[in-house]
What we know:
Helix content: over 70%
Mean pLDDT: 76
Number of strands: 0
Amino acid sequence: MADPDLSAAPGMATQHPLRRFVHRITRMDEFGVVAALTIMLLIIGTLRPRFVSLDSFVNLTQQVSLFGIMALGMVFLLAMREIDLSVGAWIHGSRRSPRSSSASRSAA
């Protein structure tokens, strides 16, 4: 099966695979974002080596999983042209701790 990215550029099929990979990455619309994230990861990783540890990535994945699942659900809603704005209120309500909600009830 021919790669559509390679068939668009004449002579790319005969180049080294690394060169083809670099060419494909630099043609992406999001190249600036990927480059900025890579540079930030390198800078922070050299200043704080513990940041790039496996424990740090596992912790980060656990913390953002709720928002990732909700974002995926919002993508499906938007793709079906069903806009649901209640997700923002649900996120806000889910971040409250039981202690703060009971304290606000006793103060009222």
